[in-house]
Amino acid sequence: MIQDDRRNFFRITDKVALEYQLIDKPLHPKESGFPFQHTGEVFSLASEIQSIETESQHILRAIHEENRLVSQYLKSIDKRIHLLGRMVSAIGFNSANPDLVEADLSEGGISIITDSKLAPDQYLALKLTLFPSYAGIMASGRLLDSIKVDGFYRHSIIFEEITEPDRQLLARHIIQYQSLLRRHQSGQSKQD
Hints:
192 residues; 47% helix
């Protein structure tokens, strides 16, 4: 598979909640001065739940090999925790009522359309919420370009600073989204 095909394979177009703020230099999300650092417990709840799940997947696989019944029970507990986390996150999200934007997402960056022009090489602090998991991701990025399209501007932003757990969450979201899309397309072709 050539590099361009691989980059397109791990890229999706999705609706996300996005807040951004211009910054002077790329800041790590945990670094002092990162604008969205004090976003509250609800924003990080779903992300932490997913990070813990990712970390424990190899343990669950080992349990599954030893005892399938215990493995099934642990998976059902995990689903309940996810549902509770999503419910709490949805309540917090709906009370904040941020706007949703269409974004092209990859592990390396994001492309969005806004009504304001930004200059290339500007740095931005980014706060994204992914759906349906309500996972929150924070990163800083550099604007590669800003192209005018039908009176709006398409901004291509490359991530400069993102935590590894957030990058893994983003990768997992992309894979799950693509899997869901393939199942949907497969279901459509069976109906046709």
